[in-house]
Amino acid sequence: MRPRGWIGFAVAGLMAVTGCTDAGPAGPEESAYKEGRLRVLASSELSDMEPVLKAAKAATGIGVEFTWSGTLDAVEQVVSGEADGKYDAIWLSSNDYLRLRPEAAGKLSSETPVMSSPVALGVKPQALARLGWKPGEVTWPAVHEAVAAGRLTYGMTDPVRSNSGFSALVSVASGLSGAQAALSEPDVKAATPRLKEFFAGQKLTSGSSGWLVSAYAKRGDVDALVNYESVLMSMNRDAKDAGAPLTVIRPRDGVVTANYPLTLLTSAPAGARDAGRALTEYLRGPEAQRAITEQTLRRPVASGVAPAAGLDAEKRRELPFPGSRAVADGLLASYENELRRPSRTVYVLDTSGSMSDEDRIGRLKSALTDLTGSGSSGTGRRFRDREEVTLLPFGSKVKKVRTHVVEPGNPGPALDAIRGDVKSLEPEGGTAVYGSLEAAYQHLGQGGTDAFTSIVLMTDGENTEGVGAGHFDSFYAALPPAQKQTPVFAVLFGDSDRKELTRITELTGGRLFDATGGNRSLAGAFEEIRGYQ
Fold first, then answer.
1. Average confidence (pLDDT) over 156-178
2. Which helix (H) or strand (E) covers residue 151, if one does?
3. Is the distance from CB of 470 to CB of 507 less than 8 angstroms?
4. Residue-range definition of the domain harbouring residue 288
5. How does residue 238 score in pLDDT terms, banded at 50, 70 and 90?
6. Does 93 score more than 50 pLDDT?
7. Which residue among 54, 192, 214, 408 sits deepest, i.e. has the most Cβ atoms within 10 Å of its Cβ?
């Protein structure tokens, strides 16, 4: 059980039991509640709960309306009041980070764990044999030693945007620091040299567990994944023609465990909170608990319900979570700007004549400017220290290409230069999508490979100039294997062709982001992509 003594603002309404009483008055008017609907801000990994929630609706009449979010984004929405009246509950993998924000205390009515899953390491059988590991005896220092020696590579989600990545970061930092209590700044500082060595072996990053699994399967040259046990076990179960399954290891010296608390908000109408309690009671019942563990491979929290076959029942120590927000945020900032491998990103930007319509060029400038650390940018949103940023604007052909490297300890000059380049973008010409993508790959081929490389394509139309799709296919097929590992993340914007962009992302192993909803959604798409770079 994780130590809770450091939770300074704990109140009776936060007791993790079913049926606890509400804390504070409801915010919105009762008329805002629609009977049978619970609006939930949640981790995207909970999409696998759909069959269980369908059965829950049949049994209780309560349906769940999800809005997906990363941990830090959800926390900020709660503590800032943005979630008030918009959501009735939040459902993250853990509320540990939320508890570090004292202002959250009055926002939460109750929280009830529904299931659990520890952070684990999934290793290819051939890598396991090469290392000579016995799964039950592996420790975090042993994993670090293998990575530092160049004998193990792995993928992990981004801690700023993914609950699993955040839990993995805390697991590794706790395991390598030797901390016996809540992580402190001295603990993190002492572990930093080993953390740098550990993250040098990270070859895949992602903003979501789902894309990480897909990218891992496409790459084929990565030895392991760090994620929740349930994700790794589900991957083994669902994989088709993927060879031998991963060996799932829970390091012997401890893990961080997600307990998925369904957390009701005090701002929710009383009817919604009643519905939330009824849904929670159902989900903790034996029938739902058996369905949860069998279908999602998470562990049940109700006594008397056995974990699904293959879930090791041997106990593991719960590694300590950071004891303060300063330590947690400092660890995240250190990961972003110091510990992880740097990024090399080419932004292929449509600045054709149509970008003058509806001030599309203005929205593009605003979204990119946010990434320089101005406006609404926050932790993990601005360009990272050590990051190489290339702006490749195009119209009928590629226009002037500019590259900047954000220097550690002195990011200002590069960020100012990027800001200036963005300001100078002007809409003119046709739309040469494929030729510009080829130029982006050629640019990345001129530099080193010890970085996370990616291409971000933003266009408001379809290809009208230069080479076509067939030429790009041939170009991509002829790239060296290492360059083929660079994905294209495309942003659907304006009148861009969804089919065309989907084809590009599927060919290169990237992902499509939809920014057709206006100014905020374009900025949101660029921010979300940060987790994949």
1. 91
2. none
3. no
4. 12-113+261-297
5. confident
6. yes
7. 192
